[in-house]
Amino acid sequence: MFKYALLFFLVMFMIGTDTFLISPLLPELQAAFGVKTEHAGWMLGAYTLGSAVFALIAGPLSDGWNRRTVLSCGLIAFSASTFLCGFADSFWTMCLFRLAAGISAAFTAPQVWAAIPSVMPPTKIAKTMGVAYAGLAASQAFGVPIGSWLASAGWPMPFWTIGAASLALAAFAYWQLPDIKPEAAVGRIAIFSRYRPLIRSAKARGGFTAYLLLHLGGGTAFAFAGKWMSDVFGLTVGQIGIAMLFLGLGNMLGSTVSASASRRFGAAGTVYAGMMLLIALYALLPRLPHLSLATVCYVIVFAVLGILFPIVMGALTSLDATLRGTISSLANATMNGANTLGAWIAGLLYVQLGGYMPIGLFASVSLALSLAAFAASGLFVRRQARTENREQA
């Protein structure tokens, strides 16, 4: 079972690193392609746009296919499109290749969350979810430093390195994973009809609403965290990068203890307690007068988020065992959509209402609404009962 956990960790690490790779390279790419600052962001946005939009299609499609094949082919396409980014000779070709990488990621990443319940025993699902999320958290912590270090040999080098590593990972995935074929009835269902059971389910509607609000609050707070650190504490870009490294490490630490927290306090207890703590921390964060206190507070925030997300993803994917790809892809699209909206809201709040204080309050309110939606949905009720029954047995 270790080989599966390692595989899922590496897949999420590779995709996450590619997601954050453009950030440190942006000034150099802007100069290389002669593109204006207001347009340069599309080299990042093309990836997230492709990932968010095509996730809605990739999920239902993958529920009717062999997940081993989808994951392997997705990694091959991801490898090729990322490798081609290193050969981009203009702004538009870079955007095209980044869009292709995002589309490939939309088919690949959801297979991780969907495959875990199929290949892992029930007692190991929560822990493996945490390991997979730790891969994503590790990419957040180390993606920028890795990209910067590789770029010292030229900006194409990071893309070529990740492309080659992803191709090797595709071979490893095909070799290690067993066939994960759909039930016969699933393959005959029309693509968008697979969303119908989720739309009809009050538990699913409430769970995804809560998930949207959770990411909206966190995404809004994170979008202008660097700007806030620069304006209030006078940090340089390099110093902000170091601060973000600590946040990523906190996120990774939280994801590694997520399964233990869920076993000890139950899924519902862990999520509700963690979200109440986040509500308080987001409200407190803008009021902290010293950088050290703000950094510690943010590390705690990211550690708590690292604990919560694997538990929430596990609960969402358990809604319908035949639609795990659809659910995982919908969760991915929800996350990207919430983060995009959060970045826009953060800009308005920061400029129009004067600083980070209204952003912190908005995040707290979003988390409070998310907590209420989770409680009303009953998403964790059955899951909590199953956990208690296993412990009694």
TrEMBL record:
GO cellular component, one term: plasma membrane
Source taxonomy: Bacteria, Bacillati, Bacillota, Bacilli, Bacillales
Membrane disposition: Multi-pass membrane protein
Organism: Cohnella ginsengisoli
Keyword Magnesium: no
Protein name: MFS transporter
InterPro entries, per the entry: MFS, MFS_dom, MFS_Efflux_Transporters, MFS_trans_sf
Keyword Transit peptide attributed: no
Cited CDD domains: MFS_NepI_like (cd17324)
